[in-house]
Specification:
- With 437 residues, this protein is α/β, with parallel strands linked by helices.
- It is 43% helix and 20% strand.
- The structure holds alpha-D-glucopyranose (GLC).
- The site of alpha-D-glucopyranose (GLC) has 15 residues, from helix 5.
Amino acid sequence: MALDRQQLQSIIKEFTVDAEQLREIAANFRQDLKLGLNDPKDSSLRMLRSYVGLPTGKETGEYLALDFGGTNVRVSRIKLQGAGRFEVTKKVGKPLIVPGEYDYVGVGSTSDQMFDFLAELIDEAIDKDHDTKFFLGHTFSFPSTQTDLYNAKLIIWTKEFATSGVEGEVVNDLLTEALKRRGIENIEPISVINDTVAVLLSAAYQKSDTYIGSIYATGQNNCYVESTINDPNNVGVGGMILNLESGGFMKLTPNRFDIEFDQSSEKPGEQRMEKMVSGRYMGELFGMALAELFNEEGEKYNFTSIDISSILMDDSVDGDRIAAIIKDKVNKDVDSEDAKKIKELAAAIVIRSARLVTASFVGIIWHRTGSGKINRQHIAVDGSVYEKMPLVKENINRALNELLGEEAKNIDTILDNGGSGLGAAISAAMAANHADK
Ligand code: GLC
């Protein structure tokens, strides 16, 4: 069957953010930052205090880093050598779900099961050495209210996590109890940070002029250093990093696919921007739109962002790879013309995502810069969508140019691969040094 070109154009239009809308979204993001600094209740951004500023780059020592927040959990031992150098001396990792075997994040899973699983992985990372003392830094990639670098209470699960008994709890207390249950008394969790904060710490440890950290993966979120906050519990230099939870940004215009998807999600009404941009959701949106093109509106097609990536990577004339994916996922035969259209749809969803994320970066840059000139700076980004999804980097650059003109040359986004682990170790070092004083 041939897909209808006009119908496709009209769906693509619904996923298009034009230049004017882009500017308006960036301006609204900036406005929400300003409102949120006065009172987070007035903003759709949570603006969560991290109680950590930038590292000096001189942090040293060996720490354990727990990276928890996506489909895989990782525990590493990291030796910080100062001068921005480090060595990962051990790394272990496991998925949180193995279909048919276990699932620590779905409905029906419990806090004890989840944290026992983490404790087991930590035990593996320390080779079951229950004597040597280690401080542990914890990258916990969910919205948490903090009162200092240790004390972080999960506000609400995002990214469709549904484990019971964790919301409202101090996550490092749950971890410490699980370690005890396993007979591990020599590991002391000492810090908790968001993954965006971890990426910023990691990049800033190695490179100066970095003030914004971002994750563009299963979830999407940004943080930045707010230089005006002074707090006696804050550790580090340059101000305090705020975890914006920008996935919750609301001043956007969702299209009917976004609205319908939100209604069927684990937490309707929450994380509206994230549901439009992140890797966890792009496949779902693509599936909904494609079902409409196949005249099967409402049918649940099971696409992931990895499928979108494969579709976009098919540069062949006959679209064989695309046809194979469509056959596999929805059992339909498509010809080369249809394959081309399907690729256009995938591109529209990815381009929208990159443009919205860039608008949020620019909102932060405008906020930090005020009326002055934009200084040369890096935005540290980690995550599979940023790293691997075709069209993302070029569309970030394009949108930066649209919004900043000449000054866009002062901004570059840099990949900070592995920043979640390194950042956790750096935060543990910063917390340990602070405690020593
Ligand atoms: C979700 C979480 C946020 C995290 C992001 C990236 O948006 O709420 O805390 O930073 O995913 O993992």
